[in-house]
Amino acid sequence: MPDIECDVLIVGSGIGGLTSAIAARMAGLEALVVEQDLLIGGPSSASNGMLWLPNSPLMLREKVPDSRRAALDYLANFVDDGDPSSCPERRAAFVDGVAPLVALYESRNIPLHLCEGYPDHYDTLPGGHATGRAVETEVIDAEKLGTWKRRIRPQSYPIPARASEWARLGRTESTWDGRIGAARLRWRSLAARVRAQKLLSAGAALQARLLLAALQLGARISTRTALLSLEYNNGRVCGAMIDCDSWHRRVHVRHGVVIATGRIPQPSPLPSADGDAVTGMLGLGAGTGWMNEDWRFLRLASEQARPATTVLTALGKPHLIIVGRDGRRFVDEAAPPMEVGSASLALEKASDASPAAWAIFDARHRSRYRFGPIAPGRIPRQRLQDGSLVRAATLDALARECGIDPTGLEATINRWNVMAGRGIDDDFGKGASSYDRYHGDPAHAPNPCMGPISRGPFYAVPLRAESLGTCGGVTVDPFARVTRIDGTPISGLYAIGGCTAPLSGPHDVAPGFAAGVAAVFGMIAIRNMVS
Ligand SMILES: Cc1cc2nc3c(=O)[nH]c(=O)nc-3n(C[C@H](O)[C@H](O)[C@H](O)COP(=O)(O)OP(=O)(O)OC[C@H]3O[C@@H](n4cnc5c(N)ncnc54)[C@H](O)[C@@H]3O)c2cc1C
Predict the structure, then answer these.
(1) How many other CB atoms are there within 10 angstroms of residue 241's CB atom?
(2) For residues 478 and 418, is the Cβ–Cβ distance under 8 A?
(3) What's residue 355's pLDDT?
(4) How far is the CA of 260 from the centre of ligand 1 (A)?
(5) How many CB atoms within 10 Å of residue 176?
(6) What are phi and psi of 169, to 5 degrees?
(7) Which residues pair with 244 in a beta bridge?
C-alpha cells in the first residue's frame, strides 16, 4: 500500500479530534482523521453533549454576567499553580480560547445555546457561577449526514432530548415546567416518527454536527483505522504508522500529529514497541500527570450497562438520603457525582461490603421522581423480586431486609426529618448550593433537596461506587503541545481531551468541563501548528 501524505494527522473522532479537523480545514490544512472504531464520535457521542465555556459570547448575548477573571479564579480553586498540566498560562489559554471556538462553531452552522441554569459544580467557591456556563447544541436529523448517517456512535439518552431538557424530566410529576418539557419531547418524538426523521441529541447531535462540518470542509476521515506508532525524525514527530482495516500504512505529516484518543484505559499502558497512541507518546518521553487518581461515580448496584443510567437527579430530590450499613449518612446526596462516588468508594473499601450504600426514600419520592430507569409511580415487580428495589411498610422492616443497622437508621431518619422541617442540613449541607438545588424539586420548600422520610411504604435501592479509570494523561503546554518530564515540548506532537492530564486535576468541576476543554484545545493545537 502506498504511503499517505497530509498536513495534520488527527487520531480519534471525539469532540477534540473533530474540532481539530474543522480548525485545520478552516486554516487551509490538509487534514486526515483516523478513528479505530467503525463509528464516529467516541464516548463524546454518548455524553450529555454539554461544553463548559466560561465567559463566552453566548453569555454576553444573553446578558448572563461572567468575566475572564471569575473564570480564572474558579479554575484556580482546584490545582496548585505549579501543576505541569494546569499552570496559570494553560488555564488562561483555555479561557481566552472560548470566544474563538464559539466563532469557529457558529461559522460552520453549529448552533449553541446556554444550558438553562445548570450551575458550576462548586458554585459557592470563588469565581463559581450559580446559573452556569455550559452550552449545548440542538438536535439534528441524521439524514443530513447523507451516507454517513449510520456512522455516528449512538447517544445514551433513549429520547431526542438535550441535556437541559433531560434534567427537566426529573421534575415531570412535580412541576408544570417538567410537564411542559415532557410534552414537548413527546411531540418532538412523534413528529420525527411521522416525518421519518432519525433525531440525534446531546453528545450524538454535537458529534454529528461536527462531522458534517468537517466533511463539508473536505476533511478526510478514515474509520477502522488505528494509530500504531509515531515516527520521530530530525527532532520532530514527522509521521505515523496506521493500521487501516488490517493494512499497515505510513503517514507523512507536514505540520504535526494531534492525539485525541480519549481517556487512557486501565491498567495504564507502559512504553512499548507495539503500542498505540499513548504508548507512542510515552515512548517519546512524554510526561504524565494525575495517573494515580481516578474518576468515580455512583450507580445502581444491579446494573451492568455502560454508560450507566444516571441516578444523579433522583439523589438530589427531597425525601431521600443515602446511608451505609450502619444506617448513617456519609455524604451530601446532591453533591457532584465525583464527590458522591468518592465518598461511597471510601465507605465500600472501609466496610469491605458491597453494596455498602443504600438510597432510602419514602412513598412521596417514589410517586413523584424518576429513579434512574424506574419511572415515577412505578414499582416493577421484577425489581422487587431481584432485590434491586426493596419495599417495606416500616423503616425497621426495611433496614432488616437490607442488612442495615435498624437502630442507626432510625436515629438518622429522626435527625433528618427534624433538619428537613427547617430546610437546613447541618451535617452535609444538602441543598445549600445552586448545584445541589438544580437537581432538587423547585416546587418543594423550604429546601428543594430536603423532605422528611415519613410516609410509607418505604423503599431502598442498593448502590455501588465505580471507578471509570484514571483521570490522568500526558502533560501538555498552553498550546496543546505534548511536553517531556522536563517541561520541554515534543515538536510536532499535540494532545487534547481525555488522554491529557486534566486542567482541573482530579476534580469534576462543571457540567461539560472535559468536553469544553477538549474542544478549545483542539482548536488551539491547530492554531499553534500554523502560527
Ligand atoms: C455517558 C458519559 C457522560 C459524560 N459526561 C460528562 C460530563 O458531564 N462532563 C464532562 O466534562 N465530560 C463528560 N464525559 C466525558 C466527555 O464526553 C469526554 O471526556 C470528552 O468528550 C472528551 O472526548 P475526547 O475528545 O477526548 O474523545 P473521546 O470522545 O474520548 O473519543 C476518542 C476517540 O479516539 C478513538 N481512538 C482511541 N485510540 C485510537 C487509536 N489508537 N487510533 C485511532 N482512534 C483511536 C476512540 O475510538 C474514540 O472514538 C462523559 C462521557 C460519557 C461517556
Answers:
(1) 15
(2) no
(3) 86
(4) 8
(5) 9
(6) -60, -25
(7) 225, 247
Mean pLDDT over all residues of the chain?
93
Residue 378, CA distances (Å) to 82, 373, 374, 388, 522 in order: 52, 10, 7, 14, 44
Residue range 207-247, pLDDT digits in tens:
999 999 999 999 999 999 999 999 999 999 999 999 998 89
Three-class SS of 233-256: ECCEEEEEEEEECCEEEEEEEEEE
Site to probe by mutation for ligand 1, drawn from 44, 52, 136, 313 as the one with most ligand atoms within 8 Å of Cβ, is 44
For the domain made up of 295-467, the CATH class stated in words is alpha beta
Contact indicator for 89, 478 with CB cutoff of 8 Å: yes
Asked whether the beta carbons of 502 and 457 are under 8 A apart, the reply is no
Across 52-64, b (16+ Cβ under 10 Å) vs e yields bbbbbbbbeeeee
C-alpha 530/C-alpha 139 separation (Å) is 33
Q: Which three cell numbers stand for residue 156?
A: 445514551
Q: Which residues of the chain does CATH 3.90.700.10 include?
A: 295-467
**Contact predicate 511/116, CB 8 Å:** no
Give the ipTM.
0.95
Residues with Cβ < 8 Å from 352, sequence gap 6 or more?
none
Whole-Å CA distances, 75 to 86, 90, 476, 507: 9, 11, 17, 10
First to last CA, the chain: 33
Distance CA 116, CA 131 (A): 7
DSSP type of residue 380? -
At the fourth CATH level, which superfamily is domain 4-221+471-530? FAD/NAD(P)-binding domain (3.50.50.60)
H or E element that contains 212: helix 202-216
List, by residue range, all CATH 3.50.50.60 domains of the chain: 4-221+471-530
Closest to 241 measured CA to CA, from 210, 269, 270, 283: 283
Nearest atom in ligand 1 to 497's CA: 26
Q: Which helix (H) or strand (E) holds 464?
A: strand 458-470
Ligand 1: residues with CB < 6 A are 11-17, 34-37, 42-44, 46-48, 156, 226-227, 260-263, 276-277, 307, 497-498, 511-515, 518
The per-residue pLDDT for 306 is: 59
